Amino acid sequence: MKTVQVALEARSYPIYIGAGVMTHPALTDHLAGRDVLLVTNGSVGPLYAARVETALSDYRVIQVTLPDGEAYKTLEGLMPIFDAALSARMGRRATLIALGGGVVGDMAGFAAASYQRGIPFIQIPTTLLSQVDSSVGGKTGVNHPLGKNMIGAFYQPQAVFADTDVLSTLPPRELSAGLAEVIKYGLLGDLEFLHWIDAQLPALMALEPTVMSEAIARCCAMKAAIVAEDERESGRRALLNLGHTFGHAIEAHQGYGAWLHGEAVAVGLVMAARCSAGLGDLTEAEVAKVIDLCARAGLPTQPPQGMTATDFMTHMAVDKKNLDGQLRLILLRCLGEAYIEDAVDPAVLAHTLEVSCCG
Amino acid sequence: MKTVQVALEARSYPIYIGAGVMTHPALTDHLAGRDVLLVTNGSVGPLYAARVETALSDYRVIQVTLPDGEAYKTLEGLMPIFDAALSARMGRRATLIALGGGVVGDMAGFAAASYQRGIPFIQIPTTLLSQVDSSVGGKTGVNHPLGKNMIGAFYQPQAVFADTDVLSTLPPRELSAGLAEVIKYGLLGDLEFLHWIDAQLPALMALEPTVMSEAIARCCAMKAAIVAEDERESGRRALLNLGHTFGHAIEAHQGYGAWLHGEAVAVGLVMAARCSAGLGDLTEAEVAKVIDLCARAGLPTQPPQGMTATDFMTHMAVDKKNLDGQLRLILLRCLGEAYIEDAVDPAVLAHTLEVSCCG
Asked: How far apart are CA A32 and CA A60, in angstroms?
């Protein structure tokens, strides 16, 4: 078992990574009282909820099964969690455990942040994407018809348990979507890691356990370091959004859930690279390298059929990373180094969109 | 103008109290960007929104008018705020101003806490109750069918503007409801203040400006001191719930909005006093004093017709102040000193409920 610590003073917490950590005795060390609200969904619950419940046999565990999919990630979609907690008369010392992918983690985390103004919670992410990204850093929330993750809270868990055993039941498309975020970490901050991913991609695709644990731990460590510096995204944390402004536009255009988040991010990484090339910071060969890596990871590298440059501009205008109407993009100074650009050259952006949408 | 400071380190903020403070130049000092979301309701908006908008003529102000009443204080009821903010493409530097009573403040505060995971907000409370209590201390949230304020956040405003001018348009019932909270402060922590309220009650009922400002400032100062010690209600802050466990049961039983919050709290204060007398801490004469003070302030002193001891027990069992199923009450050691009781003698509680419900 590897452990990565997220250093946030009073809100610091560990991420446990490895095979079988979901039932590790450390799980009960992080419970506040005797009550547990186990929030999962209809795909993950049948596979793993019983395993977690067995590890919690000395506790009162109430299970809430959310419908599966990003389409249910709404404010109203939180009600089953609150209904269950209140029906079971759970107090402020109950602990909420999120067992599932990013959608379950985001929703359950925001429910934990809001239930009685905040109860402790634990993340057991069951997709690669949530293990390397969304379960770490305390971003929780739900979507609004006009934008993704527009309603939520910064709320840190007590602990994260990233169990690599669960990845064996992950559909190949979801594995690829997780690899998009892994590639993102290499691109945004660690060229050596990017080379490592390139070399280890076959082992990652084959779910080789030690290689996978190493990848997850490295991503979590990078994210933990950035979050520790800038918990509420007033500065550097925005770098983690590399590929996301374009990606969110794709998700919004397609309707949430049509594309997997990681798939949209992969196209966003390619578009960010292309934009950086337009600004003279990346070579065309480097853009090709990003495209090649994403393609080999089983990811799309072009926006969906029929999505236009105008569609991108419309959706990007309401993205959260805009400060008072200004479009903020995360771009690449070079492979392995991202930066925040608040005043991108409109001509370069327009060209990027045109080329990408016609590509 | 009086100013009371709430000392919460990085989240410290001032409360400005006095006639006309709603349009004081200090208002714009607390705005983050150029965008303002002014959240009000159908009763308060027509009276005061234009006044605030004039003071903000250099800003882009979008007004959201919520339906008036506690019945709309739900998770779904927040959607008009999010809809307006996103339709106007407001970013993270927009400031939300809550113009209204406790319901508007609680809802708008939670919307500010949740919109894009938190934007700055300012409270302009327009009822006595919200000026002395709910606008101070950062408790925000909405109701759930199974309990009051069960979904929310601790989220501090940038500033509070308690304008005594607005009290002149307050219905007498709402003025009385506010006085219930004023009496609560005297009872829970300051016998000298309780005597002052007793003596000044006619002046308070007549809205005598200097007396009213003094009362508001003293309540805010007491609340600020308690909140500074215990922001997230892990200890002493619970004292502010004197009368509230009984009061919430009344509100839940009646359906939110039938009784004003302060009216229910007044009965709760009487019941807490009666329970304390049952435990030997207060004399019957002191209970009579509490009843007399509430009655003279125009407040009810008995639970609603037909509400039984069993009704109380049912509703109190889900009150937030219960830790893992244990009933927590705030009781009086003597007039002017409250304490937290986690193990009240069931016989004394039963007697209190019987006497109160048959009274």
From this structure: 12
Choose the catalytic residue: B73, B148, B184, B237.
Answer: B237
Domain region containing A186: 172-358
pTM, full prediction: 0.90
The last residue of one of the domains, among A152, A169, A186, is A169
Annotated catalytic, B248?
yes
Query: Which residue reads 């003025």 in tokens?
Result: B175
Distance, in angstroms, between B2 CA and closest chain A CA? 31
User: d(Cα A125, Cα A127) in Å, to the nearest integer?
Assistant: 6
Cβ contacts of B3 within 8 Å, gap of 6 or more:
B14, B15, B16, B17
pLDDT in tens, A142-193: 999 988 899 999 999 999 999 999 999 999 999 999 999 999 999 999 999 9
Please count the other Cβ atoms lying within 10 Å of the Cβ belonging to residue B146: 15
**Total tally of structural domains belonging to chain A:** 2
Predicted confidence at residue A315, as pLDDT, reads 87
Cβ partners under 8 Å of residue A67, min gap 6: A41, A42, A77
Q: Does B117 touch chain A (CB under 8 A)?
A: yes
Q: Is residue B297 part of a domain?
A: yes
State whether B161 and B58 are in the same domain.
yes
Does residue B175 lie within any of the structural domains?
A: no
What CATH number does residue A25 fall under? Answer: 3.40.50.1970
> Does residue B174 lie within any of the structural domains?
no
Q: What is the ipTM of this complex?
A: 0.89
Whether B89 and A317 lie within 8 Å, measured CB to CB = yes
Torsion of CA A286, A289, A295, A297, to 10 degrees: -120
From B169, B198, B219, give the residue that closes a domain: B169
CB contact burial A153-182 (16+ within 10 A = b; e otherwise): bbbbbbbbbbbbbbbeebeeebbbbbbbbb
Whether residues B12 and B157 fall in one domain: yes
A223 noted as active-site residue = yes
Kindly state the helix (H) or strand (E) to which residue B211 belongs, with its residue range: helix B209-229
| Residue A325, pLDDT score | 61
- Report CA-CA distances (Å) from B243 to A194, B184, B188, B221, B344: 61, 8, 10, 20, 15
Distance, in Å, from the CA atom of A173 to the CA atom of A133, rounded to the nearest integer, reads 17
A208 catalytic per annotation:
no
Q: Does B153 touch chain A (CB under 8 A)?
A: yes
| B86, B141, B320 ranked by CB distance to A150: nearest | B86
Which residues in chain A have Cβ-Cβ distances shorter than 8 Å to B318?
Answer: 86, 89
CATH number at residue A331: 1.20.1090.10
Statement to judge: residues B117 and B15 lie in one domain:
yes
**Contact call for residues B146 and B134 (beta carbons, < 8 A):** no
B82 has a chain A CB within 8 A of its CB: yes
Active-site option among A241, A251, A274, A320: A241
Residues A84 and A227 in one domain: no
**pLDDT tens-digit readout, B48-93:** 999 999 999 999 999 999 999 888 999 999 999 999 999 998 999 9
Residue B176, domain member (yes or no) = no
In this structure, the answer to whether residues A164 and A19 fall within a common structural domain is: yes
* Together in a domain, B156 and B238: no
